[in-house]
Structures are given as structure tokens and as C-alpha cells.
Amino acid sequence: DAGITQSPRYKITETGRQVTLMCHQTWSHSYMFWYRQDLGHGLRLIYYSAAADITDKGEVPDGYVVSRSKTENFPLTLESATRSQTSVYFCASSDSAIETEAFFGQGTRLTVV
Amino acid sequence: RKEVEQDPGPFNVPEGATVAFNCTYSNSASQSFFWYRQDCRKEPKLLMSVYSSGNEDGRFTAQLNRASQYISLLIRDSKLSDSATYLCVVNGGAAGNKLTFGGGTRVLVKP
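Predict the joint structure of the above. Result:
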């Protein structure tokens, strides 16, 4: 199916563990983004990527690692999960034009215990 | 100061009434502007783009004021289904192509 999908949808992990959130899009959009949304707050940009092998930090990158070896995939890794990283994570993609909309995945609800 | 600021609300709106709210942005070089809608922490979805001349989509009207650096959204004849959080989004300028979100304005339409 065309679109943008995230996996897993729900994840519970322990403090200190490494966890990877997956994001896959089928449109060949050049841009991909990772946001986190904490209860009662808007979306904050973690990392983004303008193309394969090009990534850049957003507003809150500490504790996260990304890679983009293929245009369609943009995994987000929490190297050593902390409770403060409990959040809903949204992946998005858009084409290169600044005027175009971004499309979001359904989100991953991550709980760090 | 946040790059994009919104009144969090909630705006409690009687069904059928009109509600309007603004969003201010700090980067004067921003190039594109959007309103997204988000329901119950589901994924945000584009409601409408905001153009310099203002634009309307059914009951929704968006305006951009570059001089004062704010955008607005007006909802006429509010429906119960309009209850949601409305996210102001700014893109472009020195920040490049990375959408910057406001904190959202919550709207509750009541019978």
C-alpha cells in the first residue's frame, strides 16, 4: 500500500535499552522527518533528512541517532532509552518543495519504564 | 521565545458559532504556512495551506499577515466534528525545509 508506515505502533522498553523505531514511505519523497509529541505539547523536530545519506539535527536531537541509507526508510534509534523519552513519535515525509504538505505516519507510542 | 506560538485554548464553541484564532511566528524569512488538524494524538493531517492573499476552503478561512508575522484560522458554522487540535506550521526561510510546529490550539465544539 502506498503511504508512510511506522513500526511498531506501541513499544514498552526499559531504561538503558536501545530501541529502534522504523519509518517507511512509498512515495520516494526526498524529505523525511522525526518528531516527538509529549502530552499537551506540539510536535518537536528530532532529526530530518533531505535525501539518502543526508541527515541533520532538529530541535531535540540528544539521545537519538538516525540513518538513511535508502530513500524510503528513516529509522530512529534511541541509544540508551530514558524515561524522558517516553512520548509519541511521528515520522513524516514530503517532497523537496517547501510549499508542499508533509504526510505523517500513524505514530509510535513509546513508553520507557 | 518559541519559533511558532499558539494559544493552547481550549476554545469552547457552541455548535453553529464562529471561532477564530491566531498563530505568531518569529522567523520573518519563513516561506510557507499551513494549518494541520490533529485528533486525539493521532497523526496530524493537512487542513489547508495559507497563501499571502488569504484563502478559503468551505467553512474554513486562513489569513497571513507577513508584516505582523501571524496567521489566522477562522471556522464558520462550527460542527461537532470540528473538535480537534489545530496546529500552525511554518516552513522555509533560513530554517530550510523543516516544518516547525506550534503547540496547537484546542477547539471543543459543544451542542
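The interface with chain B takes residues 31, 33, 35, 37, 40-45, 48, 50, 56, 58, 88, 90, 92, 94, 96, 98-99, 101-102, 104-107 of chain A (CB under 8 Å).
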